[in-house]
Amino acid sequence: MTETRSQSSTEVELLSFRLAEQEYSVPIMSVREIRGWTRATPLPHSPPFMRGVINLRGTVLPVIDLASRLGMPPVEGDARNVIIVVHAGGQSVGLLVDAVSDILALPRSDLQPPPELAADYAHSFVQALTIVDGRMIRVLDLSAVLPTYQTEAA
Amino acid sequence: MTHDPMAEIRASFFVECEELLESLQDALSVMADSLEGDGAQDTETINVVFRAVHSIKGGAGAFGLTALVAFAHRFETVMDELRCGRLVVDHDAMKLFFQAADMLADHVRLARDDATGSPPGSEEMLLAVEALMGERASEAEEEVVEFAPMGLAFDLGLPDLDEPDSGGADLGGADLDGTEPDGRWTVTLRPQDALYASGNEPFHLLRALADLGTASTTCDLSALPALDALMPEASCLSWTVELTGEIAEGDIRAVFDFVEDVAEITITEGHSHGALAAPEALPAPALPVNASAAAPAASPSAATAGAAPSPVAPASAAAAVATLTPVAPALAILPGAGSAPEQAAERLAAPAAERPSAPPPTAAPAQTAPTEAVAATVRVDLDRIDRLVNLVGELVINQAMLAQSVTEAGLPANSTVMNGLEAFMMLTRDIQDSVMMIRAQPVKPLFQRMARIVREASAAVGKEVRLRSEGEGTEVDKTVIERLADPLTHMIRNAVDHGLETPDRRREAGKPEEGVVTLSAQHRSGRVVIEVADDGAGIDRPRVRDIAIRKGLVAPDAVLTDAEIDNLLFLPGFSTASQISALSGRGVGMDVVKQAISALGGRIAITSERGQGTRFSISLPLTLAVLDGMVVRVSGETLVIPLSSIVETATLSAQDIRSLGPETSVIHIRGGFVPLFDLGTELGYRGPKTSYEGGIVLLTAQEDGSRAALVVDEILEQRQVVIKGLQHGYGNIPGVAAATILGDGQIALILDPGDLVENATGRTRSADTLFALAG
Fold this sequence. Notes:
The complex is a heterodimer.
Chain A: H1 2-8, E1 11-19, E2 22-27, E3 31-36, E4 50-56, E5 59-65, H2 66-69, E6 82-88, E7 91-97, E8 99-107, E9 126-132, E10 135-140, H3 142-145, H4 149-153
Parallel strand pairs in A: 2-10, 5-7
Antiparallel strand pairs in A: 1-2, 1-8, 3-6, 4-5, 6-7, 9-10
Chain B: H1 5-36, H2 43-62, H3 66-83, H4 91-112, H5 122-142, H6 164-170, E1 183-191, H7 193-197, H8 202-212, E2 214-220, E3 238-245, H9 249-255, E4 263-269, H10 291-302, H11 314-319, H12 327-332, H13 339-354, H14 363-373, H15 382-408, H16 416-439, E5 440-442, H17 444-461, E6 465-470, E7 475-477, H18 478-499, H19 503-508, E8 515-524, E9 527-534, H20 541-550, H21 562-567, H22 590-599, E10 603-609, E11 613-621, E12 626-634, E13 637-642, E14 646-651, E15 657-660, E16 664-669, E17 672-678, H23 679-682, E18 696-701, E19 707-712, E20 714-722, E21 736-741, E22 747-751, H24 753-758, H25 771-774
Parallel strand pairs in B: 6-8, 13-22, 17-19
Antiparallel strand pairs in B: 1-3, 1-4, 2-3, 5-7, 8-9, 9-11, 10-11, 12-13, 12-20, 14-18, 15-16, 16-17, 18-19, 21-22
Helix pairs in contact in B: 1-2, 1-4, 2-3, 3-4, 3-5, 4-5, 8-13, 9-13, 15-16, 17-18, 18-22
C-alpha cells in the first residue's frame, strides 16, 4: 500500500548521506533504520566491498561498504560512520556510509536521468540526479548496489 | 490484496484433512494389530475410520471437490458395511483398506493442489474394495440384522453436506437397528449452567422426548435452594424421563445432539428406578412435580421468559408436569408463550425430527468423543515461531550484555540488582527452553508416511511386510522431521528390498512369512535416536567384502572387522543388490542417507546379526536451532566449530610437523599422518605462519573417516550456541555452515570442517585422503 501511495504522488522523499565528499540518496521508503557503526564480522571468501555481517536484533545482516562498492576507497569504519539498513529486492542489507545528512522531499519532476558517462564505474549505480541548494545529489539504484551472490559465488 | 475468506476456510479444511487422514491411519493400524491379536475389532476404532472418511467427504462436498467426494463416498460405503458388522475384516481386506486410505490421501493432495481428476488406480482400488462387500452386502439387505448400536459423534465443525443418496448409504442398516419392540427407556437429564447460558431450553428437549413415545417425566428438585439463595443463572433442576414405545436409542440421543456437552445425560434401558445408570441423578426420592411446586422456582425468571436464556424457565417447569403423553397440552399451558420460544422450540425439535434415522450413538463414544476433540492445540505459522525464537535469542544476548555491565559497575554480589538479574537469567533460560519446545513435534506423521512406503515397497517386491512403529510420540524439531523423510524412506525401502528375505526363504529359515520392519524413536541423553530394524537375513559380510573388493573400494588383502565391513555399505557407489529393482540397487544408497544424516548433525550406525536382521540407528540432535560448539579464536576472529566433529585437541611440537611438498604439511599423531590446515589462512584472515610449533590444533574427523588438523590461535570455551542461518543472498561460503551471536553481541561464524577441508585452497593441503579434491 505504501508503494502505491508513493507512486501516485508526485513527491519523492529521499534520505541523503555523504560518501567520500559526494552526496548520495536512497528512497526513504526503502530505509528500515539507521544504526551507529559496529564492527562487522568478516565473511571469508567474500568480495572486498562486503564488510561482513552484524547482529541486527538477532538476525544476521550483511553490511556493504558502499564507497568500496562504488569504486571509491573503502570507508574507514569508526564511530562517526553509520550503517543505513535498507530493504530492497526481498533482502535487508546494511550500507556503510560516512554520515547521514538530510531528508529531502522534492517533486518527482526534479529528478533527472544521469548523463551517459560510460567511463565512470559508479554511474551504473546511479538512477537519477537532482540538485538541492546547489548540491548535486545522486539517487542510488539499490537493486544494482545489492550484490547478487548466486552469480558471483559461481 | 483481495481477502478471500473461502480460501482460508479451504486451507483449514485441508489442514483438517491431514489430521483426519492421520487418525484414519492410526485406527487402521489398531485394526491391523487386533487382527493379528484375537481378531476382535473394537467398534469405536471402526467408527473412527468411518468418521474420518465421512468428515473428509463432507468437507470436500462443501468445496465442490467432486473427485474426492466420489472416492470418499464409495470408500465410506464399504466402511459402513464394516461398521454394521456385515463385513468381516481379514488380512487381505486390511491391506486393501490401507491402500484405499493412501489413495484417499492422494485424492486430498490432488484436490489441495487444485488438480482435477483422480490419481491413477483410483477406480481399480475402489472396485477392489467394493468387491469385499460383494454378495455379502446384498444378502444383508434381505434380513434384519442383529445390530449393535455404535457411536457416531457428529463433527459439527465440518459442514455435513450429505446428499440424500449418500445419507441413505451412510445409514444403511441404521434404520432397522436397535429397534426394541416395546422398548422402555429411562433418560435422565441434568443440565449444567452452560446449557442455559447457551440458550438451550430443557423443555424443548423434554417435549422432543415425549414426541418419541409415551413419556413419564419427573423433575428432581432436590438441588433447588430456597428462593432467597437462588442464583438465577445456576442450574438446579434435573429430570428423569421414562419412555415407552418403539424407540431406538439413537433417536433419544439425537434429541440431545446440541446439549450433550452441557448436560449430564444418561440413557438406560428399562424403567427400573433402582438400576439407573446414574444413581446420583436421584439422590433423594424424586418428587413428582406438580404445577404448584414448580411455580415458585419458575417465578424469578418468568418475567424474563422469552428469548433470554432462563435457568429455570417457566417452560421447563410446565414441561415437568407429571405425564406428558400428548404434547399439545404442555404447549397450551406455556405461560405467555410468545412466538420467540415457539420458534426456538421448532428449531430445537427440528433436528430430532429431521434425523430420525441418525445412526444411534451409544453412551460411551458420545461422551468420550467430545473430550478427545478438546485436546486444545493452536495452529501457528512457523514463521511466527521462528520470529519468537529469534527474539528469545536476542533476549539471551541482551541479558548477557546486561550482566556484564552490572559486573563492571562493581555492585556487591547480594545487591538487589544482582538478585534481580539472576532471577532474570533463570527466566530467560526457561523461556528459551519453552520456545524450543514449541518447535518440537511428534514424529508420528513421519512414521505414518513410512507405513505407506512399507506398503508400497512390499507390494512392489512381493513380500509380506508389517511395519511396527514405536515411540511415535517422541518429539523432535520440526526441521529435523522434515529433513529426515528422505533418508528414512530410503532406509525403509532398503530394509524391505534388501533386508528382508523372500517369503520362501523365510519359510526355509523357520521364520514367519511376514517380515517385520521396526521403526522406533526415543530420546537418549539429549539426542533423539531413530532406529530402522528388520528381522531379515542380516548382512552377508563375505559378499559385501567381495563386492567392495570387486568395485575397488577396499584392497583385496585388507583385513576388515565385522563393523568395518558393515560400514562399507555407506561408501558411495556400493550396492549389494545383484539386479536393479524398481526400488533400489542403483548405487545411490546408503552414502546419500549418511550424508543427509550428517547434514542434520547426526550420526548413523549399523548393527547386524546373521539370520537375525539388521538395525540402523540414527542419532540426531534434538534441535537444529542449538549446537554444541567449541569457541576458538583465529587471528582476532571468533569462530565456532561443532563439537561433534572434533575428535581431540593437541598442542604441536616441532617433531610432530612434517612438511609435505613445498607448501603443505602433515602432522604425525597417534601413528598416522593427518593433513594440517591453518584456519587463518584458509579463511583468508592471514598468511601461513612461519612455524606452527606450539600451535593448538583441533583434530576433526569427517564422515568418511578421514581426519584433518585445524590450527587455531586459542581455544576460548565450549558452549551451546544458537544457530542463525546466513540468509539466502550470501551465497554459499565455503567452509562456513552458519553464524551465531555471542554474548557480547558479535556474530561468530560456525564452521563446517568437512566442507572447509574439501574446499581448502592450498598451502597446507596433504595428499592423503584428499586426492579427489586436489583438482
